[in-house]
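Researcher: Go.
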Amino acid sequence: MDSSTGCGANMVYPRKKVEVYRAVVFTALLFGSECWTLYRKHIKQLEQFYMCCLRKLAGIRWQDQVSNTRVLEMCGILGIEAFLLYNLSSVGSAT
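Model: Structure:
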């Protein structure tokens, strides 16, 4: 993968795509998640969908062999499991 693709620091447009993804798709995906009983199987399924979306937004093909951690770094976003843990730990706290 060259520097002209992906969510690199100099790429404004892909960063905007990620912002829209977080605002629309991610919000709809996790609506009501604080009430869910999540098992490892469910977290893996959410993670797969999440990473698939980020790779499409970043223009990364599976043949490029880019790790999930690298995709998250390139897009400047946390993994879905980290988000769920943060979201669930804040439930019931005063905001």
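Model: DSSP finds four helices and no strands in the chain.
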